[in-house]
Amino acid sequence: MMDLVSNFEFFLLILVRISGFVYSAPFFSLKNVPMRVKSGISIFIALLLLYTLPYTPVSYAGIIGYSILIVKEAIAGVVLGLFANIAYYILAFVGQFTDMEIGFSMVSQLDPMTQMQTTITSNLYGYLVLLMMMVTNLHHYFIKAIVDSFQIVGIGQVQLDPNLYKLMIEFVTNYLIIGFRIVLPIFVSILLVNAVLGILAKIAPQMNMFVIGMQLKVLVGLFILALIIEFIPSVADFIFNEMMYFLKSAIAYIS
Hints:
The protein has helices at residues 2-22, 35-50, 62-85, 90-102, 120-135, 138-152, 164-203, 209-228, 232-253; strands at residues 108-111, 116-119. It has nine helices and two strands; from the N terminus they run H-H-H-H-E-E-H-H-H-H-H.
């Protein structure tokens, strides 16, 4: 009877960390993924790990002590999933900046996956990178990463580093740098268009540059987007590398 209780306690701690990761990780945390699918994936992976990981007795003092272990495991899973997922939001920044430059920022739509108001280009980049994530089996990497985390941070051994905020500061820095690198072709082309319109406004002040500028920016922006669409795999590489880097770094901060 004690072995059964001990195994259930061990299984529950595994399940909590896996569930926290599944509910916050890229691809798995999408709103259009049914809750039953998320729960099924969590339970299935936890059962596999129960018979794969070597059993280690978990020491705690009463119900409160075990509840603290549960909370730590849940936070560990959420932190791992969150830091793997936040790199995906670089695409939202890129899309909003791009649409602001070419004049599409006033057009927003509800993204059914995130339940957020996003722009057209944000959805374009987001769906393309998500499809590449599925084609390249990156979601398998995330599952392997959370499974390997049990080898680095054993059950009941989660220690949250208070310096975790430094990883968030590093992300914000990379967020801006990578975002501007992706949007740079659009930014430069629209900057040249603005310079040409400024010169024309001085040469021919009778021309309505506001009307001409809006149409010209849209045409130039769509043309540049059509040209750089072939570089989407490179953009996906940037995002995937950031996801992997922050996931590995987050593991170091909970061990």
